[in-house]
Amino acid sequence: MSEKLNEPLYIKVKYLADIDPLQQIKIGDAIDVRAAKDINLKYMESTHIPLGFACELPKGYLALLMPRSSTFDKYGIIQTNSIGLIDESYCGDNDEWAMPVVALRTDIHIPKNERIAQFLVIHKEEAMNILATTHLGNANRGGFGSSGRNKFN
Fold first, then answer.
1. Considering its fold, how many domains does the chain have in total?
2. CA distance 116 to 132
3. pLDDT(6) > 90
4. Which of 12, 37, 105, 117 has its CB 3.0 to 4.6 Å from that of 56, i.e. a possible disulfide?
5. Quick check: 32 and 23 in contact, CB under 8 A?
6. Within-domain flag for 131
7. pTM here?
8. Domain for residue 23, yes or no?
9. pLDDT category, 5, cuts 50, 70, 90?
10. What's the CA gap between 17 and 94, in Å, rounded?
11. DSSP 8-state assignment for residue 74
């Protein structure tokens, strides 16, 4: 939704391949995306799967691209950057979205037009100022990932 309640956002989409059109999933908040061509991978091969479209996000928004929950189970691939951040400046006619993946199984075949990922459009963070300091003034919690135990000592 836009800043005004009940006013929908619009995303301009230019299709670069013959794929089914983008649609918001029926249950949930993301938009499914599809492989724009057949993909064949061997164990530990990596590639960028073209998604068959370029788009213009609304000003002040960005998209987070991530695998569908079934992608690894069905195809044995993982997204190499864990999650992709696509900002509003990536909006040229040929700025095709892609999903960088690596195969963790042998002889993987992903057919063209198969739903493999999804994206979520979210409002960007406001501009922040970074303030360097020598003391934060808070109690230490115990280290990263510790929940009270310091794993690095």
1. 1
2. 42
3. no
4. 12
5. yes
6. no
7. 0.81
8. yes
9. low
10. 11
11. H
Strand partners, 12: 56
Q: How far apart are CA 152 and CA 65, in angstroms?
A: 32
DSSP run (H or E) holding 79: strand 77-79
Gap between the Cα atoms of 151 and 39, Å rounded: 41
Report d(CA 72, CA 108) in Å as an integer.
11
How many helices (H) and strands (E) are present in the chain, helices listed first? 1, 12
Say which amino acid occupies 133.
T
Catalytic residue of the set 18, 20, 87, 107:
87
Q: 114 is in which domain, residue-wise? A: 12-123
Q: Please list the helix, strand and coil fractions of the chain in percent, rounded to the nearest 5, in that order.
A: 5, 35, 60
SS3 state of residue 119: strand
* Rounded Cα gap, residues 136 and 116, in angstroms: 43
One-letter identity of residue 49:
I
- Please state, as a whole number, how many other Cβ atoms lie within 10 Å of the Cβ of residue 62: 19
For 15-66, what is each residue's pLDDT tens digit? 999 999 998 777 878 999 999 999 999 999 999 999 999 999 999 999 999 9
111: domain CATH number is 2.70.40.10
